[in-house]
Amino acid sequence: MAVKDYLRQRFFPHMWCPGCGHGTILNSLIRAIEGLELKPHEIVMTSGIGCSARISGYVNVHSLHTMHGRALACATGVKLSRPHLKVLVPMGDGDALAIGGNHFIHAARRNIDLTAIVMNNRIYGMTGGQFSPLSGVGIKATTAPFTTIDNSFDVVELAKAAGASFVARSTAFHVKECKDILKKAIEHKGFSVVEILSQCPTHYGRKNKEGDAASMLEFQKKMTAKIGSKALQENPNLIARGIFVDLDKAEYCTEYEKIIDSVMKEKV
Amino acid sequence: MNNTIKFVQGNEACVEGALYAGIDFFAGYPITPSTEIMELLAARLPERGGKFIQMEDEIASMCAIIGASLTGRKAMTATSGPGFSLKQEAIGYACMTEIPCVIANVQRGGPSTGNPTHVSQGDVNQARWGTHGDHSIIALTASNHQDVFEMTVDAFNLAETYRTPVILLFDEAEGHMREKLVVPAEGELEVVSRLRTSLGRDVDYHPYLPREDGRLPMSDFGGEHRFNVTGLFHDMWGFPSNNPKVIRELLRHIVDKIENNVHEITRYKEHYMEGAEYVMVSYGSSARSAIHLAKARRARGEKIGVLELQSIWPFPVEMVREKCAGAKAVLVVEMNLGQVAAQVKAAVTEPERVFLANRIDGKLITPEDIKIYIRVIQGRGV
Lengths: 268, 382
Hints:
Largest sheet of chain B: 8 strands, mixed
CATH architecture of chain A: 3-Layer(aba) Sandwich
Structural class of chain B: alpha/beta
Radius of gyration of chain B: 21 Å
CATH superfamily of the largest domain in chain B: Thiamin diphosphate (ThDP)-binding fold, Pyr/PP domains
CATH topology of the largest domain in chain B: Rossmann fold
Strand content of chain B: 15-25%
Helix content of chain A: 25-40%
CATH architecture of the largest domain in chain B: 3-Layer(aba) Sandwich
Number of strands of chain A: 10
Helix content of chain B: 25-40%
Largest sheet of chain A: 8 strands, mixed
CATH class of chain A: Alpha Beta
CATH class of the largest domain in chain B: Alpha Beta
Order of helices and strands of chain A: HEHEHEHHEEEHEHEHHEHEH
Order of helices and strands of chain B: EHEHEHEHEEHEHEHEEHHEEHEEHEHEH
Oligomer: heterodimer
CATH superfamily of chain A: Thiamin diphosphate (ThDP)-binding fold, Pyr/PP domains
Radius of gyration of chain A: 18 Å
Number of domains of chain A: 1
Number of strands of chain B: 16
Strand order of the largest sheet of chain A: 2-1-3-4-8-7-10-9
Distance between the termini of chain B: 54 Å
Number of helices of chain A: 11
């Protein structure tokens, strides 16, 4: 299937700002799906609210645009009901880890077979540039005119601790790496988390003097390094990219099917 | 197959009703006094290939049943006061996206944590207006276990018929009391299946285009047809729209499909109502005391009857007006500060003849309590 056939072309051009990283992530995601030769009717995309959440409208799959933070909770109902479907859950940083934080850690704890994609631009874009739980200390935002004093979550560490069986990180700059990681995440049986650093030149970039989209992408390249690379060894301040966890672990829906099988046998 | 006679809690009668109606998905979070519903379904659902999941919170439980229902499952959750508050956002989402589902609220005292182990009927208005924005809702109630069973079956039927969330407003006394329940044989009560589109794969299917009769055939999400579901105002394909005509028509549709069918949805019972000079309007556990009192008074020749509401929303305005028309006085018996009484006053032609007999202290209202109010109304002193 051609890449364009996975898209609802009539809704283009998309609504994201010029220079936003989310379109690039959509590109990597579609190419990952295409690479896996998945059919659109085998895929459910469940999203929440925010710039990131609009991604589900552009993809020609079964699309469920839910409430702010609730994408994973709704996706859990879909997946447990129809375990044969591939359920992809793209979320923003505030969506996934502020209002949806509880659903995030519990979906990870259950190790239910969902693919959670955190499109992390470190800001609430749709509401006009407020800081998020992934902004970190010393950031300017409309709700932090004197810079933030809030610490940020490390999505990778949080997902690991909560029990996700696949955890990875990439960026909007590393388009091909991002595609390859997403492919593995979608194929993985269990809860997979992929954090993708994205750029919001409109709000984050402007407020924090990070320049235009090109210089923000340059920053993603400069500030990150592959796991196990020499660069990372030499400079531990760099953000690590790659696959951190890839475990074969009991998956929730499969385990529930086992309960059904044993209970039904007992009844007969 | 024969009827099965059981001696059960009201919460178990609700479970039996849900199973009879064909529930195959439950998501919940423990909360007194509704927890038995989830405990029982945790055991019963996998026996028939259904799915049960204990979610991380009340919000997630409501979201999970929405996801499940969309894929074609008959789905339900159960809760009480604080949990009902938390579910309101997703109940609104189900109204907007027209996803059938059932929410049992076994009422306890509120506001806030209130009185978890005692009875109340304080969530009547929350069932109607708990979620934001104009919308309509169906809410049913019951005063005995047989009716809890039947109203639960009805709740699933109405959810499918109108593609809407349906609230079951039970209460702590009903939920925890034990009495006889006869589970009818299969086929004895009507069970409404999901109305699915007959369109084949790759045919342009419109999930939000009502048929001439107002109903919207569904397609299991993840199945034959790909469409969009969103809580934003949306067009007939489910895609977001800011078009004023689309917005107006969708809002009218989700309200009118219920309000215009109030006669179809209305459920009530009449007890000793023949020629009644005094009418007690009641529902749920309160109605038991009202019925008890009416029976005793009739035996003494006093013309006093009970109009028992089994559907509260949409409020059966015309039916209540008609049944109360000849009464010297109407006494609304409930365990709150007059939530249904306000509806009755608005419905009847002479609101000054409507009085409230209530208890709000966590104790079940008794026939003795109601007697005092009747004496006052009749001018016989306290």
